[in-house]
Amino acid sequence: MVIGDAAHAVVQHLSQGGSQALEDAVVLAEELTERPLAEALPAFMNRRFDRARHLQRVSVSEMTSPPSGAADLENLRAEFAQEMAAVRAYLDQPV
Ligand SMILES: Cc1cc2nc3c(=O)[nH]c(=O)nc-3n(C[C@H](O)[C@H](O)[C@H](O)COP(=O)(O)OP(=O)(O)OC[C@H]3O[C@@H](n4cnc5c(N)ncnc54)[C@H](O)[C@@H]3O)c2cc1C
Question: Where in the chain are the domains?
Fold first, then answer.
């Protein structure tokens, strides 16, 4: 089982690498406590895969496609705040 950066390294734009590694560790510990190994590993994947992949993709897109159409700094700030609000709403969902 590979978790953390080894499984889903992110670029730094979301500050999520360490957070996602910790979520992996907590969820893996929960699953291993509650089920036999053969069931715990797929259950872990079910709970973690989409979330880690989503955040990895958002972090890369923040790096490669900065908000476009930002005519000035105020617009850039507003666009970034909007994008981060969407990330925060996503992170508020239970793992
Ligand atoms: C400058 C910087 C700033 C960051 N800021 C943030 C932030 O603000 N928020 C956030 O959430 N994340 C942040 N991150 C990302 C975060 O640090 C990583 O995502 C996180 O540390 C990944 O944890 P990990 O346990 O998966 O891997 P690591 O922390 O890389 O741990 C892997 C460990 O395995 C060891 N190792 C490697 N090979 C072997 C081997 N063969 N045998 C034994 N041990 C081995 C390494 O020495 C290391 O100690 C930042 C990263 C950097 C570089």
Answer: 5-91
**Ligand 1 atom closest to Cα of 17?**
19
Start-to-end CA span in the chain (Å) = 19
Residue 17 Cβ inside 6 Å of ligand 1? The answer reads: yes
Average pLDDT, rounded, for the chain:
88
pLDDT of 69 over the 70 cut: no
CB distance 16 to ligand 1 below 6 Å? yes
The least confident of 51-55, 62-66, 82-86 is: 62-66
- How is residue 4 annotated by DSSP? T
